[in-house]
Amino acid sequence: MKKIVIETENFLLQTLTEKDASEKYLSWLRDREITKFLYVSDKEQNIQTIKEYISSHNNKTHFLFGIFSRSEEKHIGNFSLRFHPKDKRANLGVLIGDKKFWGKSVPLECRAKILDWVFINFDCKKVEGGCIANNYPAVFNYQKQNWKVEGILKSHRYIDNRACDEIMFAMFREDWFEQRDS
Amino acid sequence: MKLCSQCLGRIGLSKEIAKELLSEIFDIDTSIIPDDIGLSNHPSWDSLSHIRIIIALEKRINRKLSTLEIIELKDIDSLASLLEINYNRT
């Protein structure tokens, strides 16, 4: 499988391989504080389930990028990207596993380069993402980057026994290039 | 639509309260907070301070923000507006 590398100022986004299925990655999936707003399987995770998840990405339409800190040379999180060629649309999700990197604008910096990459390399008109309404830093990141709110999925998730809304965001190709080039 | 002087006074007051709230969170003097401060144009308004702003606002208005209000909160005007709406409810 061809390894894709996308460079940002502070990070390398690289195709994950089974070798990246580490104890550290596993610890993220077992940490409720990290996963509570994410769509992580309820089943018990282990190194093998991580390997299976990584290999489920075909690197043609489904991509899993590890976020690697350039200064510390370590894996700190992931971006998953699913492109739907028929609809010219992609879904983008992020996990920042290393809590030291929370609040450091990692999703903003990396997402910008992924948007460039997907809009330049694919016939993709729209990238969509979403987050739970009370995941305020995630909402902030979408707003800061001028993603459009497409809708609210009411009581879409139950988190800590509380019904939570999910906000759907979208970035359209022309809006992204206009913003990037202005 | 023309606003009466009382309404304009309240809006101005809400903006001043919003500035005070931001000044406490950013730990800077209200006098140096721009009139158009927002998450897109000020380095202090980052993802972590955004959490603090929402928590401080909820404490001030004594209720949780709705999802629509969370989406609307992007700058000092929307913050003042949420304070203003709450003022009118009390």
Describe it for me?
Chain A has 182 residues and is of the alpha+beta class. In chain A, 30% of the residues lie in helices and 36% in strands. Chain A has one domain (5-181): Gcn5-related N-acetyltransferase (GNAT) (Aminopeptidase). Chain A contains six helices and eight strands. Chain A has an eight-stranded mixed sheet. In chain B, helix 1 crosses helix 2 and helix 1 crosses helix 4. Chain B has helices at residues 5-26, 47-61, 67-72, 76-89. Chain B contains four helices and no strands. Chain B is globular, with a radius of gyration of 13 Å. By secondary structure, chain B is an all-alpha fold. The interface between A and B is medium-sized, with 18 and 13 residues.
| General form of chain B | globular
Question: What kind of assembly state do the chains in view correspond to?
Answer: heterodimer
Give the rounded overall mean pLDDT of chain B: 87
Number of domains of chain A: 1
Which CATH-level-2 architecture of chain B? Orthogonal Bundle
What structural category do the secondary elements of chain B indicate? mainly alpha
Q: Give the structural class of chain A.
A: alpha+beta
